[in-house]
Amino acid sequence: MVGLVERWQRMGRFALLACGVAAGVAGLSGCANNSAGGTSASQANAAVFTPSDEPEARRRARIRLELATNYFENGQTTVALDEVKQALVADPTYSDAFNLRGLIYLRLNEFGQAEESFRRALGLRANDPNLLHNLGWLQCQQRKYAEADQSFVTALANPAYTARGKTLMARGLCQVEAGQTAEAEQSLLKAYELDASNPVVGYHLSNLLMRRNELTRAQFYIRRLNNSEFSNAETLWLGIKVEHGLGDTVAMRQLGDQLRRRFPEARETGAYQRGAFNE
Description:
By secondary structure, the chain is mainly alpha-helical. It contains 15 helices and no strands. The protein has three domains: 72 residues, Alpha Horseshoe (Serine Threonine Protein Phosphatase 5, Tetratricopeptide repeat); 51 residues, no CATH class; 83 residues, Serine Threonine Protein Phosphatase 5, Tetratricopeptide repeat (Alpha Horseshoe). Helix 4 packs antiparallel against helix 5, helix 7 packs parallel to helix 9 and helix 10 runs antiparallel to helix 11. This is Type IV pilus assembly protein PilF.
């Protein structure tokens, strides 16, 4: 799960599963600027400042957080963490800084510190759906599947939440890991309805359907993905296995030729050449 997700993240072709970085500091609390929409009680508690009334402590913290965000997005994780620490020294009530600190610790696999950071952020902005999304994804990495699902459900229950597709995707991937295939299919189908171009959703939906031997349905999703700019060795190999299961040797050969040409050294290419369709 994570390998494919991270590969597309590095390509910059879809938003991070963890909310709150790509939009910059102005939208750090969510997958997009104020993605929960409106002005909720939790947002009011977070004290939104304009340049004219921004306290000096918050201004210093915001500048540090801007630097931290840039470092984080460029893969300079420890430098980003140091900047976040400086932001929190300047303003220990800055929920966005706790959120980014949680994402940094999540990347570093420091799960306990990541959870403490997300909960500190939620303490300052209670029930924020973006923060709940991040906490849920962390809990999924810890295999706390029931707790993760509850975090996702609570986030999705906010009617003004506009990043629902991302949370449905995360929920579906977590349900796959938990072995809840029927529930995962429903979550991923809903995510696909909201964003049919998301390669992670398309891949995992097709893979799930193939594992359930629903090959015609799996073919629909993987063919669409392999006809897009997001195809890679993993998606082509999945497409080959689906076409093999359906007995379409022409389509299988076409995908195999593309796999060998584009990714000659890939593990999937070796598996194809061995005919290891059931590995």
